[in-house]
Amino acid sequence: MSDLFTDDYAATADAADPLQRFRAQFHMPRFGDVEQAYFVGNSLGLQPRGARAQVEDVLDKWAMEAVEGHFRGNSQWMTYHSLVGAQLAGVVGAQPGEVVAMNSLTANLHFLMVGFYRPTAERPAILMEAGAFPSDRYALESQVRFHGFDPATDLIEVQPGADGLFGMETIAEAIQTHGHRLALVLWPGVQYRTGEAFDLAAITRLGHAAGAVVGFDLAHAVGNLPLQLHDSDADFAVWCHYKYLNSGPGAVAGAFVHARHASTDRPRFAGWWGHDQATRFQMGPEFRPTPGADGWQQSNPPILGLAPLRASLDLFTDAGMPALRAKSEALTGYLETLIRSQLDDVLDIVTPSEPARRGAQLSLRVRGGRDQGRALFEDLAANGVLGDWREPDVIRISPAPLYNTHADVLRFARAVARWRDA
Ligand SMILES: *Cc1c(COP(=O)(O)O)cnc(C)c1O
Question: Tens digits of per-residue pLDDT, 14-26?
Answer without folding.
Answer: 999 999 999 999 9
